[in-house]
Amino acid sequence: MVSALEASSGAPEDGPADLAIGGFSDQPPWLVVPDEMPWRIGIDERRRRTRAEVPSLLRHRRVPPGARVAVVGSRLGLALAGWYVTERGGPSSRAGLSRRLRRAFEHLGPTYIKLGQILSSGTGIFPEELVTEFRLLRDHVPAEPFEVVRQILAEELGGPIEDTFSELAETPLAAASIAQVHLARLRTGEEVVVKVQRPTVAALVRADLAAMSWMAPALVGRIPVAALANPPALVELFAETIVEELDFRLEAQNMLDVAHVLAVTHSRALVVPRPHPELVTRRMLVMERLAGFAWDDVAGMRAAGIDTSEVVRAGMVAFMEGAMLFGVFHGDLHGGNLFVQPDGRVALLDYGITGRLEEPKRLAFLRLLLGGTVNDVRTQVAALRDLGALPRDTDIGQVIADLGLDRPPIDPTQLTPEELTGEIRDLTKALLSYGARLPKELMLFVKNLLFLDGAMATLAPDIDLFAEVTHLAEYFSRRYGERIAREVGIDPRRLEVDRGALAASLGLPEGTEAVTYRDLQERRELIRRRMERARRAGGRRRGIHLPRHDRSPGGPA
Question: Model's pTM, two decimal places?
Answer without folding.
Answer: 0.85
